[in-house]
Design a protein that fits this description.
heterodimer; A: about 200 residues; mainly alpha; Four Helix Bundle (Hemerythrin (Met), subunit A); 6 helices; elongated; B: about 100 residues
Chain lengths: ~200, ~100
């Protein structure tokens, strides 16, 4: 913690921090619900549930998001140096990497899961499932998976739009402090992913 | 606001992000190793928690913010941990009955 007083914190930054704290509680609620269900149902770790997810693809996506966080901090440093051209380039790289992450998730991973019959409700599986049986518990895993990764993906979409908005508003070299605020939101996406990735892909 | 003085320090972001990348690889390695059960979950969770702290404190510059912002942010995390710890005994000790 620094010795900076609260009065010195710009209002925009203060607002972003309260937004982040709120987002942490929302994601935290989902994560808490999943952990409690995971403790109750060992079936979540079965081959039909978490075992069906490809950790290599998850790792590639994690690295892409990590690199996008690096490009964002470089954009922020460029903004501090008032190097607008460099700042704009690295914001665009961040945007592209975010879209690549979404492309892998929505264009490769999710379609493969749908092909295997897994959906957010897995209604087909539930229709013939014994209440409280393994099929229903596995289906519950996929409900959590699609809900939470979908909500995370939605934050990437919002983050990308924020970066695009800041890119446009800062193009003339004004309002450069907004780059850090957009960056803080982008790092939130990484912050949540460092929890979701091991939770779904690695703990089986 | 364009000339707002930035009050956070200079950080070695390459080193920070490199550390996170190494921790990610270590987590994947543990997941693919023969380790099972609680030790595996604890090891992966610990590495995840370290990454969480690095992102929050350093990339998001929380450690340079005033005490109140730190308090609000960390309290939201503590709240979730308390929620899990508070409900977990019920989940673990009382078997849930799913009925139609």
């Amino acid at each position: 913690m620094s010795d900076v007083t609260l009065e010195r914190v710009p209002k925009g930054r203060l607002g972003v921090w309260f937004l982040i704290a709120g987002e942490l509680v929302i994601f935290g609620g989902f994560i808490a619900a999943y952990i409690l269900a995971r403790l109750e149902y060992p079936e979540f770790g079965s081959k039909e549930a978490a075992g069906a997810l490809n950790p290599i693809v998850g790792t590639i996506n994690t690295m892409i998001l990590l690199i996008s966080n690096w490009t964002m901090v470089v954009a922020h440093e460029a903004a501090l140096e008032k190097n607008v051209a460099k700042m704009k380039s690295f914001m665009l790289y961040t945007l592209v990497l975010g879209l690549v992450f979404l492309g892998i998730k929505l264009g490769y991973e999710w379609p493969a899961d749908f092909h295997e019959g897994h959906t957010i409700s897995s209604a087909k599986a539930i229709a013939g499932a014994e209440p409280g049986g393994e099929v229903m518990k596995v289906s519950l895993f996929w409900s959590y998976y699609f809900l939470m990764t979908g909500f995370h993906g939605l934050h990437i979409v919002v983050g990308s739009l924020v970066i695009l908005g800041v890119y446009i508003s800062c193009s003339g070299g004004e309002n450069l402090h907004r780059v850090e605020l957009a960056g803080a939101y982008w790092h939130l996406v990484e912050l949540v992913w460092v929890i979701l990735f091991p939770m779904f892909y690695l703990i089986k | 606001m364009a000339d707002e003085k930035d009050y956070h320090g200079k950080q070695n972001y390459v080193m920070l992000l490199g550390t996170i990348a190494i921790l990610v690889i270590a987590m994947v390695g543990i997941s693919m190793s023969g380790m099972t059960g609680s030790p595996k979950v604890l090891a992966i969770s610990a590495l995840g928690a370290v990454q969480f702290y690095i992102v929050l404190a350093n990339l998001m510059h929380l450690k340079y913010e005033p005490a109140l912002i730190n308090l609000v942010t960390y309290l939201s995390v503590v709240f979730i941990v308390l929620l899990i710890l508070g409900v977990a005994p019920d989940t673990l000790l009382i078997p849930l009955q799913i009925t139609e």
